[in-house]
Amino acid sequence: MKRKNLTDLKEETVFLNYKNPGTAVITGASAGIGLTFANKLAAHGFDLVLIARRKERLQDIATRLESEYSIQCEIIPADLALVEDIGKVADTIKQISNLDILINNAGFATQGYFADVPIEKDMRMLHVHMTASIQFTHAALQIMRKRKQGVLINVSSIGAYILTPGNVLYDATKSFLCTFSENLRLEVRGLGIKIQALCPGFVRTEFHEVGDFKNFDRSAVPDSIWMTPESVVLQSLKALEKNRKTIIIPGWKKRFSKWLYMNSALVRSLLQKKFEDSAQNI
Ligand SMILES: NC(=O)c1ccc[n+]([C@@H]2O[C@H](COP(=O)([O-])OP(=O)(O)OC[C@H]3O[C@@H](n4cnc5c(N)ncnc54)[C@H](OP(=O)(O)O)[C@@H]3O)[C@@H](O)[C@H]2O)c1
Is the pTM of this model over 0.90? Predict the structure, then answer.
């Protein structure tokens, strides 16, 4: 049988059978995976609320999407490492009466041995990945439970499963998002609410250009391992349509890597050694 290419997938995606798309809230919408979700959902007619720190970038994106797709696009410039900003965004989410989708996507990584990374930096990451996702999900569920419909996507990482020295808190916060999503799914069973923890591997975004990854050598990772944000988002949305699983790892190579890591002590120790070396060279 012929393998389907991504263009076929795109055309086939009848996104969640929404006849009257409501509003989608996306954190980390100024770049990468979040921006790709925004483009895709705008094309499907969803109004958007976009959240990130870079206000001008968000404004440009909102203006473009409103004119291309005749949707409404609000922006909330916010630093999700700050508890006050998280509270402000959560209050806004509670007011969105036609909230259909929440995507907790904002994120970044610190790098280095846990005891060496300044604790303030790690706590910022913890707030962006965990505190914000917890509060926004809680706020969104107040609306979604009443409407008996909704979609929650928590963007985790394959790092939740493939543990590597130098990424201790990153992996732990992403692992939290998986457990949180899986258990929440049990609670909302029967309420028409879909929950996904999306666990990508290496994706070509700005992620490896900012913060501790500024000097990351992308060529150290083989080309065939990288995915595009478009393919990650398409696979996420396709999986939501089927809604069979909570944990979604886009790309068969990533699923195979996870399987190898879980089942081979040799692979685990080789990989951990490689990461140990690079973490010590920071
Ligand atoms: N790229 C990968 O290889 C990869 C792999 C696995 C998982 N992921 C996960 O995918 C998610 C999206 O990352 P990406 O690859 O799309 O990276 P990206 O291109 O760097 O985008 C990250 C987004 O998060 C926002 N953000 C970062 N810190 C923030 C803060 N303090 N407050 C508010 N927004 C903040 C950024 O916006 P501003 O800078 O404008 O605030 C940006 O919109 C992350 O959760 C990441 O952990 C990525």
Answer: yes
